[in-house]
Design goal:
Radius of gyration of chain B: 27 Å
Structural class of chain A: mainly alpha
Number of strands of chain A: 2
Largest sheet of chain A: 2 strands, antiparallel
Shape of chain B: globular
Strand content of chain B: under 5%
Structural class of chain B: mainly alpha
Oligomer: heterodimer
Distance between the termini of chain B: 14 Å
Helix content of chain A: over 70%
Strand content of chain A: under 5%
Number of strands of chain B: 2
Strand order of the largest sheet of chain B: 1-2
Helix content of chain B: over 70%
Number of helices of chain B: 19
Order of helices and strands of chain B: HHHHHHHEHHHHEHHHHHHHH
CATH topology of the largest domain in chain B: ABC transporter involved in vitamin B12 uptake, BtuC
Shape of chain A: globular
CATH architecture of the largest domain in chain B: Orthogonal Bundle
Number of domains of chain A: 1
Amino acid sequence: MTALITQAVILGILLGGLYALLAAGLTLYFGVMRVVMIAHSAFLILAAYLAWAFNRATGIDPLFSLVATVPLFFLLGVVMQRFLLSRLKPATLTMMSVLLTFAIALIIEGMLGFVWTGTQRRISLSYSTASLEVFGANIAVVKLVAFGLAAVSLLALYLLMKATSFGQALRATIQHKEAAALLGIDTEKVAGYGFGLGLATAAIGGTALALDSTIYPSLHWHWIGPLMAIIVVGGLGSIPGAAIAALVLGLSQSLLQIPLGTTWAQTVFYLALFITLMVRPQGFFGGRLAQRF
Amino acid sequence: MPNASDLATPTPTAPATGRPDDSAGERFDRRLGLAKAGLGVVAIVLALMVPWLAPDAFILSVAVVIASYAAFAVGWNFVGGFTGYISLGHASYSGLGGYAVALLTTHTGINPWVALVLGAVVVALLAVPIGIASLRVRGASFVIVSIALVLILLLVFQSWASVTGGSEGLRVPRPFDSSVLRPEQHTRFYFLFLVLIGIALLVWWLIDRSQFGAGLKAIREDEDKAEALGVPTFRYKLVVFVISAFFTSLAGGLYALWFGNLDPVFQFSILTGSYMVLMSLFGGIRSLVGPVVGAVVVGYAMEVFKAQYGDSQFHLVALGLLLAVVVLFMPEGVVPALLGLVHRLRPAATSIREESAAELLERNRAIDAERRANNEASTEREAVDDPRHATTGKGRS
């Protein structure tokens, strides 16, 4: 029993790490543009498919696909911000951007199904079945790799935000766009790069996901719900809040799987979302930013 | 300072109909009104004749599907059109409505039409706590909650197979005798949907003209200002949310009775919810008939697309592209855009005053004199409180 719980805790933390990375991306979009990016998880699945296709075509480890997908997604993010989202009227930006990104998610899902059919796909690697024994719990190596990838990216993102002048400009834009612009920051450009960074997290997360999951085009709906719940619970716009909420909810999901099974354990996200809205609509870690949204 | 336009309110002596440009504009408005009414009558007659115009049962069934889309879109538009809160999860209510009818008729054996209304009432009651939770937040969070609701309901209805039949599906008993053949069934359901759309549009129209509707529209334009002006925003939003859930669930129940089989994947599908949004936006969420026009155009296009290319993944791309185009290029919708085009043809109402400057001065003097007389009659304290006076003292803080 203890081994079971240890295993659940470890798996929960590993899953939470991936959630945290993806939620950080969502938070970035929201921070720079006040946009809720429904297509985030669709890009996640797109990246997973690209990793799978890369592996199938070349036989090289799918992790190497990151070399291409991360810059590609960054560029896509910049383009999306500049040519699509910034065209929407500011007054209705929040609602219309949700619809626009929703439309993008549908297009991606449709194209994935069109190009690679709806068949379930899975990458098989030499270390796919390998596992480590930690405190009597069996942990698959691919899950550790995925977590490592997520942790390293989160750390890099943190350093970028805290230690570079671009990060400073980005944080200033998130905090107060007009004030940042008055200080001479080109907020439009920074917002574009922020969007690119957010999409880059989807590229990394997707590759990590492809390592140990079966993927299919409509999988993104299973991710968007939990991710949305995480950013609302964490407080829209707060990256540490999102990370904490991701870990807590990932852990709870993993622990609840023992008594309830995988399907019902997912409801923890929606339950947390509902409770948060009833008790603290601005989220548990969010500041004043979340209040209005 | 009160500017001239404030004071120049039309006086009874001003000849309102004698001006040539005004009467041209009025004539145009009258013609436009007639054209609209004529178009409406033609549309209604055509809609009523569909069962006789349809060449075969399949086309008729497509007409029923499009009518159901229109009913969903009109139900959705109670929240979307009045408050501007875009719900992507209205499939929750249509799905719940369907299951409510199915479960009520199979377990209690009551008349299916009673079950339809009863089910919708139950769903409306369920919508109260959901509304309380999701309307506490605005914009983005509201959309998130609406999507989350569909996902959670899908999860529950798929897993709770002992009650809902799970992925096996749930059979809905037919409300009509087995002696009624399929085409006849289609015709009957088609008219039932038309009746439902008619009632929903009537309620929408009544709200639109009421003070309640004005409050809701104030929320749509600026919620903070509406609240500051004393609109009970939360209560208004909640009421209209429940009304919307009620009509959407009626449409869902009717669809379930027609289709005869429920599968959670289709009942609680985000796509169904996005159809409602797309159709309403396409037609124009601020206009009465917008959602119906949108449902007919988009629904017809979707059905043709499915018939041509099959129910492949590619129709997702088409749906997504269409939604993106509507959001980017005509967020106001087709109906308002067309009306705007027609209004361009209207003889321009000039902003040139018909009064000469001297006449205006004369009239303003008269008003000022009247004011002074009033002020002198009242005490000084009252004069300070006189709202009319207050507007003249711009520097007074």
